[in-house]
Automatic annotation (TrEMBL), chain A:
Record's keyword terms, sorted: Initiation factor, Nucleus, Protein biosynthesis, Transcription, Transcription regulation
Subunit annotation: TFIIA is a heterodimer composed of the large TOA1 and the small TOA2 subunits.
GO CC annotation terms, alphabetical: transcription factor TFIIA complex
Molecular function in Gene Ontology: translation initiation factor activity
Stored CDD domains: TFIIA_gamma_C, TFIIA_gamma_N
Similarity section: Belongs to the TFIIA subunit 2 family.
Domain Transcription initiation factor IIA gamma subunit C-terminal: 65-108
Keyword Transcription: yes
Protein name: Transcription initiation factor IIA subunit 2
Localization per Swiss-Prot or TrEMBL: Nucleus
Organism superkingdom: Eukaryota
Claim: Coiled coil is one of the keywords in the record: no
Pfam families: TFIIA_gamma_C (PF02751), TFIIA_gamma_N (PF02268)
From TrEMBL, chain B:
Protein name: ARM repeat-containing protein
UniProt keyword list: Nucleus, Transport, tRNA processing
UniProt-listed InterPro entries: ARM-like (IPR011989), ARM-type_fold (IPR016024), Exportin-1/Importin-b-like (IPR013598), Importin_beta-like_NTR (IPR051345)
Functional summary from the UniProt entry: tRNA nucleus export receptor which facilitates tRNA translocation across the nuclear pore complex. Involved in pre-tRNA splicing, probably by affecting the interaction of pre-tRNA with splicing endonuclease.
Amino acid sequence: MAATGQSFYELYRRSSIGMALTDTLDDLISERRIEPQLAMKILANFDRSITEVLAEKVKARLTFKGHLDTYRFCDEVWTFLIKDVTFKMENSSQTVQADKVKIVSCNSKRPGDPQ
Amino acid sequence: MSNNDSGPLPTSLEEVEALILQLYAPGRPDHVFKTQETLQKLQRSPEGWQLASSLMNNKDQQIRFFAALTFIVKLNTDAKSLGEQDAQALLQTLIGWLIRCMEISEGALVVRKLCSTLVAYFMQFSSSWERCIRHLMYCLCTNEARPYSSLDEAPETDVLIQNLSDTKAVAIFWIAATLVEEIGKTDSNSMKQHRFHRQVVPNVDDIVPLISKYIGNNPTESAGGKVKEEAMKCFQAWVSYSHRAYIDDEIVLEPLRSLVKPALMCLLDDDLYETTVELFSDVLANYSKFLHKEDFDILRSLFNSPWAQQRYETLLKGDFDFDSLQFGMFMIAFGDATVQDLTKNLGTDPQCEQYLSGLCGLLGAEGHAVHEDKIYVPALEFWSTFVELMVDDIYSEKGEHPSWFPAAQALVMQAIERCWRKSQFPPTEEFNSWDSVDRTSFKDARRDFSDLLQQFVLTTGIPLLQVFIDLIHKSAASQNWAELEASMYCLGGVSDTATEDPLRDEYLDKVFTPSLLDLFTDPQTEIPRQTMQSFLDLIISYSEYFKHRTHALPKVLTFVFQATTSQNLAKKASKALTRLCSDCRKILLPELGAFLQQYSNITSNYSLDGSVKEAVMEGIASIIQALEDEEQRVAPLEQLLNFVEADVEQCLTLLSSAVPPQEGDQYASDPSQIDGGRGAMALELGVTASKCLTGIAKGIQVPDDGPVDLETKDSTSSTFWTAGDGSRIQQRIYSVICRLYDALGNRGEIVEELCDVWRQGFREMEPGPFVMPPNLAAQFFMKSNFQTPRLGRVITTACSLISSRKWGDEPPDVLAALLSWVASLLQILGRPGNDPDLTQTGIEFILRILLKYPQFLLNHQPSSSLEFIFMFALEALVGSDPLPKQIAAEFWAAFVNLPNQPEPLQGSINSAIQHLGPMLAQALVYNIGGHAARSELDKLSEPVKKLVVRQVNAKAWLEAALLDPSFPSDKVSEKDKQFFLQKIINLRGARGTNQVIREFWLACRGTNFAYVS
């Protein structure tokens, strides 16, 4: 039921795995092995699956520290810009540094969804 | 598909029938494929309509099925060929066929396909068949395929429904359910275009009375279970669809709501229970707004009924069959949908408390979590949501907890007690007998519980720790190891949240008591592995505690050192040791000698894994780092290096004593295979020695969270380690690295490990034993040649050297040598496509030099080599390998964007750009014109933007490239190209260029690629 009733964000299409999928679909269309309509359905399935998998299956975690430079809440989307960030991965004493990190977080229920 | 893939087309209907029967009969896959191709060709041909009509009356069911399928294919691909009259005639044909099916009691296979065909018809001609359900009822009642225009003459829907037989009602339910399922799958654009929702809505008034006939308040008593079940499934499909209609167009299908109450009563009907409970679980989970307040009241009283009580008890007693489990999921779905009300009415409404207690009870069903108890994880998820809600509302009432908080906390405490029991490992043998999925899921469930605890401690504060401390003492006293393990696991789980609390150490004093430490170090007590591991985890989680409470440290260290000698515990123990040494480095300084001795003891008595040795060495090195004077660090470091060198010696001895490979021996180039495994042992020792060096390098690094003393003199200029007494340490380290490389440099593992050692030094911000002069590092890298395994790793490590701050203002000549070394490797490689990894790392190295020391790149000799580098980077840009292309795009963006340099360097750059600019423009346009993958466009936009901003000739170069015969697409006109060029020039390198490039790429590729925004 959720599959037909609920709609999902397309934001993971810009992730590396989403872009790799889109490139592959482009290749399949170029080779005339699939039609663009099927590619659209596959991407819609991807939107759903990646959202569900990230919510349900990912158990790894990390902590990070940094300086909160900017934050905003617009159209139900929080955006945080953090500078001089240090990430600490679980089960590892090593840290990863980044000059700047942007965190975009959306409500797990899309605006307009009835809950 | 080419004609060659299918056989010759049949020439008669009989031949077609034979082919269909052949298709559905068992046969060789290639024959089936060929037959399918031939039949599909027929279906798609203009004669497909006629073929379907001819086959639909065939006496064979499979052929009639194929006829319905052919109608679907034609409707989906060729509906536009039908005029208005043709379409009406087709509808009457299909309905006539459906009537005949009813008359001859056609099998479900054909009827279902025919129902799908009618839905396919609706999808194409929805505007001329709006009241499709009523029209079908009318035709089926009168046993005549009447035209749609005659619908006005039909009796009222209620009358039609009364006259409809159960068999015909089932057919209507199939069509109605398929109709909304298919429309639910339609994407948003198509939905808007065809306005499907608006076309479907009128039908709800027709289907609801028909469903009501079977599941309503006064259902037809004579109706069989089959038709009632189909009615319920149809209702389920329509409710599901109504959610989509609400999201897309805010359409509420109100008539459906009248069926909720009678449908709920169907839960009590065993035949309808499974469909109904699934329906309401879905509605509660995804679309609870569909239900009215009265519906929730009915649900509440239903959950209080003896029926629910009996199902609940059956579930708790360990009946996890599908229908029993569904009841638990139904309870949880109701809890999720009403959690706000349930929580906020706690303390005032006894029913809420009762319901939440019931949900808490679900955490205590019989059987081990996951492996047997299937309701535990969903119930745990509910309680996690409940706790999150509590955290959100902690201070909702101006600094005070809301009034319902104490009651909610008491309930969560009950839930925690049950989860604690469920988190206890079964006996090891039993646990190992589970399949791997169950074992992993059990551990995941423990982590989910740990997450809940972390959240809950935010509402209770640190006193929550006392609960687990009591449990630890109780289970330790009774030596109940599973309980002790779970209690320590829970306590460790809240360590992150408890860190900042000033009372934390007082609570932990009650944990790390002498009696508990004695229990774990007592050789007479046999404690299961999982409990020992959990205790080590507890030490790791609270290692910082021992910095403040040094009295417990000796016993803890004794325990940890002991544990390193156990194969099952060694890895965790060594991690605990690293953590303790790092956190308590200053306190442990007086014990440094004892640590070195202890290391010597355990390595001489036990064979330790390489990673364990690395971790222990890291720990000891971090204590050495705490010594104030650099001179003091030399002696203990020498001792550590003695251990490493002992391994190296043993490794080399093994290699030299092994029988040398004969000429033509297949393992001649692989030392690990020499002499029946002696080589493998040598390799393992070599890897261990390298890992130990890395461990020492990590430990000796200055902690980055230490205080910065502004009074002390700047130590970055100290030459103690490079030219003073410390230099002999560096020489020994370098010697170990070189000896290992010389002996085992043709093994990828060794190359990687040694590169790791160098990286530790590059990362260090202050002088130290691993911060060696850059020329030493460069000399090591240049030992590698084209045959070296994992050469890409070596070059990447050289990249880290370039980026590190070890060069000072004037980089030495060795940088030029390093550049020549990389250039020669690329020349041997020849073309970028021959090894994408080497190409990528090679160009990245050149990019780093370009960014930091452009003069070294531009003055690179001989000039033919420099020319090769540029042409190689251009070739990588037009190639097909994604990573080389991306780094080449970065290189060219950086090159075009170089800041102004002093003369004569600037002159060289200008001349190079004038020469290379047209070729670069051509490579970029070739990609943007459709050759590049979509994901590469942003990277490729960068050099385009830089060209436009920095080069006056950019427009001419790009224009020539766009008009060049090598341009890869014929889908854009010259005008389009000029328009595109004008746009990117006008944008002058602004961010909008990326979008313009994306649109142009799309135009070049064609409309087939516009499926994604």
